[in-house]
Amino acid sequence: MRRRRSGEQSSQVVRRILFSGDGSAGDLIPLVLMAREFQRAGYEVCVCGSSEFSQIAWDFGVPFEGYPHDYSKIYLDNQRTGYVHNIRDSIRHQQELFEGEFDVLSKLAPDYDVLINFLGELFVPSIAEAYGMPNIKLFTFPVVFSERYGPPAGLPFVSENKHINRLLWRAAVFSSRHFFSFHDTVSQLRARLGLPPAGDLATENARCDHMMIGLYRELMPPCPAWDRFDHSYIGPCIPSDDVKLSVELDAFLEQGSPPIYVGFGSMRHANADELTQTILAAVRDVGVRVVLAQATSKLGNGLEDQDDVHVLREYPIPHHILFPRLKAAVHHGSWITTHLAARAGIPQLVLPQASDQYQWADRISKAGLGPRGVDMNRMKVRKLSAAIEQLVQRDDYAANANALGDRVRGIDGPRNAVALFERIKGGFETRRPVGVTLP
Predict the structure, then answer these.
(1) What sign for the dihedral angle of Cα 104, 57, 96, 433?
(2) What's the confidence (pLDDT) of residue 41?
């Protein structure tokens, strides 16, 4: 791979874009969809992500380079309920991720003009800084200081009180520097790039040439604190391709009343059998049919399809085709599932367990799109059945969800990303890259 020399003039026309979405499938998919749209517009693109998700990029015809780690084996396979466990596991392997990102991106970066990355990647912007590349970030949940939204700490307490959230962000910054090793890891890798040590990671994570907020403005309204950096709402980058449901799923949907969906994306559950029984008891108590999505977990293992239950074992799941045919969705509260259900116009119930999921549970409830979330760390059949009963019986939830779906359905995040880039890229074409010498 060619390395830029110090003082070498960048391309007259910015045409080569490097994308990074190192995280779960839900973190990578929006970057892949965005990259495909840039590719259609004539740009040269490459997407980097966890090696296990290469098929996602290939399915959409996007060039892909895998990081030398498996995100699911590092994080998702070890999930279990418990706040402390989830917080600890969300940070304990950051060093492995950061070093993998360094190895791949330091080789690829010299051949690209711009870096676009998922906001949660705390090390990746150092690559853009080292090579003098413009850095655009895709914002899908708050990982920058906000007075309206607290950090995605995976705790059930969510507040919009600015004084409380200031304290929470300060605590997060203090912890990252003094309690957890990933701050030192970022600094060590920056030194290998010839950069000064990392400062306040929350503040540095907000430094970029532009922030693309890939969310519906109605679901996560802006925070005044974001005015300190350039940002634009582009809407979510979520699938919209016309695909077919399986024959078995289509037949189940046709044979009775509209079912609800219950699924937890890439989340794993050590007590999957117990969780399956809790879900079945709750939905049968309410008297609704259910599509139970196994995805990559063990949910529904050994369960045969019945008149009121269909276990969806195909993966990936075409939520954008399935959700409009359902009565409601019960899910873990990822930003992508939340937005897919919102676009479909169906009410939602969030069962949060970790990270930003509590934030989305709070947003759904406050927007009147469903009942208050049921914490998966403390879930009982009685609480779940009561919440599902509200979900499917309250007309206001259905009306609010349907109205929101009508308002947002035409928002195309990937196309908006390209249009925005075309407007702002003029300032990128006069940059000079910084010299980087790697061993």
Answers:
(1) positive
(2) 97
pLDDT at 87: 52
User: Residue by residue, what is the 3-state secondary structure of the chain?
Assistant: CCCCCCCCCCCCCCCEEEEECCCCHHHHHHHHHHHHHHHHCCCEEEEEEEHHHHHHHHHCCCCEEEECCCHHHHCHHHCCCCHHHHHHHHHHCHHHHHHHHHHHHHHHHHHCCEEEEECCCCCHHHHHHHCCCCEEEEECCCCCCCCCCCCCCCCCCCCCCHHHHHHHHHHHHHHHHHCCCHHHHHHHHHHHCCCCCCCCHHHHCCCCCEEEECCCCCCCCCCHHHHHCCEEECCCCCCCCCCCCCHHHHHHHHCCCCCEEEECCCCCCCCHHHHHHHHHHHHHHHCCCEEEECCCCCCCCCCCCECCEEEECCCCCCHHHHHHHCCEEEECCCHHHHHHHHHHCCCEEECCCCCCHHHHHHHHHHCCCCCCCCCHHHCCHHHHHHHHHHHHHCHHHHHHHHHHHHHHCCCCHHHHHHHHHHHHHHHHCCCCCCCCCCC
Percent above pLDDT 90 for the chain: 67
pTM of the predicted structure, to 2 decimals: 0.91
Cβ pair 22, 67 in contact under 8 A: yes
CATH of 247-408, one of 3.40.50.2000, 3.30.420.280, 2.60.120.200, 1.20.1560.10: 3.40.50.2000
Delimit the domains of the chain by residue range: 16-238+412-428, 247-408
| 8 A C-beta contact, residue 258 and residue 265 | no
Give the pLDDT of residue 91. 58
CATH of segment(s) 16-238+412-428: 3.40.50.2000
pLDDT tens-digit map of 281-335: 999 999 999 999 998 788 999 899 899 999 999 888 999 999 999 999 999 999 9
- Longest pairwise C-alpha distance within the chain: 69
pLDDT in tens, 203-249: 777 889 999 999 999 999 999 989 888 999 999 999 999 999 999 99
